[in-house]
Q: What sequence folds into this?
């Protein structure tokens, strides 16, 4: 019986397979990440995608894998794909598919489709790799091995589809962050397609009206009555609340909530802002330093009074990071961080300095140059590891002010920044690193 694709499935499939390069006519996206609650038809759509890449994608000797951490999970995609072939003789005859007990192959060109468990090791040359329930993976070994093995393929496809999980330190949540960074524009990636079905921050998970928002297949493969009963059980039993939130609303219950609203932040973006517009106007020049491995930053902040209210302007922030953090794999085990930094370097918004540490003399020279454009009224600086630069700033009459990052010093400024963003009194030039930093701020309430 044919499967009729629902609108959300059509959208994902059309984007993944219909968006092609004008010159080569090859697919734009090499990675597709879909995050969706249970019982919304993940396995069926993944099985169809895998079969298409196996038999219909004009890739000689295509290798297609259904990868997972356990044999049972790997078969969740391979089993329906195998069943589709067994029940559709026209398909197997048209494409010469042999259906075996634990794999499928095409003798004509040696193409094969099989389940894959755990760490596969090197040697494979996947044309398509389906990773089902990626949240169950403790490491990115399988995902990375599959992705790096695709170099010989013309238009390979890494297809990950998952429900939310609990491990926010795992590779799935890391990929989720990458998707969000791509979607909000802070770290562009033209080869990644991602879509996440969940409730909005601030939604009441006990409200029946949120069920449709997170479950696009409601009424088709998952029924509203079932979800309502699960929701009621979770409301009555605290032990079931997190299970319901994670599996049926796609909420990572261990994930920390961002303090600032990124939608509001993006509405404050004004790419027309330039330093020339503020030439000669006093500015606050703030610093956040980390000599080894981490990123160092310098931010300019201008203020103007408009209709009796203070407006803030963040223009031309600067960021530095050591070379080893970006390019020396053995010194940076966080591959995702390195890739993020590399993209920012390519965009010209992140400066790489030699070695394993940032030389603060670079930052001092930038501060002196900033003072020539706009007189620096004060230079807030975190004292941790910044004694030398603080003295140098004082010698240049840049008025360093020590700001210890604690509740007393940070509470009121965070509240004012939030209010300014929400009311449109904050303006920024759209720097992607600044957007990423804002998205990482987590508020902690002190009793």
A:
């Amino acid at each position: 019986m044919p499967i009729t694709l629902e609108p959300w499935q059509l959208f994902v499939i059309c984007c993944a397979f219909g968006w092609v390069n004008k010159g080569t006519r090859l697919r734009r996206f090499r990675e597709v990440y879909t995050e969706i609650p249970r019982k919304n038809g993940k396995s069926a759509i993944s099985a169809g995608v895998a079969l298409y890449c196996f038999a219909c994608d004009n890739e000689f000797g295509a290798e297609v894998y259904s990868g997972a951490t356990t044999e049972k999970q790997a078969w969740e995609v391979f089993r329906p794909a195998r069943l589709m072939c067994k029940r559709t003789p026209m398909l197997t005859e048209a494409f010469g598919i042999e259906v075996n007990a634990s794999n499928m192959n095409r003798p004509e060109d040696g193409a094969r489709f099989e389940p894959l468990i755990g760490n596969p090791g090197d040697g494979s040359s996947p044309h398509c790799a389906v990773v089902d329930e990626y949240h169950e993976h403790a490491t990115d070994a399988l995902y990375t091995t599959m992705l790096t093995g695709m170099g010989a393929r013309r238009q390979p496809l890494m297809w990950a589809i998952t429900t939310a999980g609990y491990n926010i330190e795992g590779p799935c949540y890391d990929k989720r962050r990458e998707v969000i960074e791509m979607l909000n524009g802070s770290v562009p990636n033209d080869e990644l397609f991602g879509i996440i079905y969940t409730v909005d921050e601030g939604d009441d998970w006990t409200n029946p009206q949120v069920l449709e928002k997170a479950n696009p297949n409601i009424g088709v493969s998952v029924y509203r009555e079932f979800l309502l009963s699960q929701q009621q059980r979770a409301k009555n039993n605290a032990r079931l609340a997190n299970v319901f939130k994670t599996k049926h609303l796609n909420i990572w219950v261990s994930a920390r909530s961002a303090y600032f609203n990124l939608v509001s932040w993006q509405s404050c973006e004004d790419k027309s802002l330039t330093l020339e517009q503020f030439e000669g106007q006093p500015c606050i020049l703030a610093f956040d330093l980390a000599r080894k491995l981490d990123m160092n930053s310098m931010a300019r902040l201008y203020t103007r009074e408009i209709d009796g209210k203070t407006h803030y302007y963040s223009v031309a922030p600067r960021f530095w990071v050591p070379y080893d953090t970006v390019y020396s794999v053995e010194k940076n085990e966080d591959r995702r961080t390195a890739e993020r930094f590399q993209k920012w370097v390519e965009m010209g918004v992140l400066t790489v300095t030699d070695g394993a540490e940032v030389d603060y003399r670079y930052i001092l020279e930038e501060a002196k140059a900033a003072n020539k454009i706009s007189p620096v009224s004060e230079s807030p600086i975190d004292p941790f590891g910044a004694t030398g630069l603080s003295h140098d700033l004082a010698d240049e009459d840049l008025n360093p002010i020590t700001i210890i990052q604690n509740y007393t010093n940070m509470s009121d400024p965070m509240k004012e920044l939030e209010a300014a963003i929400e009311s449109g009194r904050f303006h920024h030039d759209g720097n992607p690193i600044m957007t990423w930093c804002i998205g990482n701020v987590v508020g902690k309430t002190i009793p």
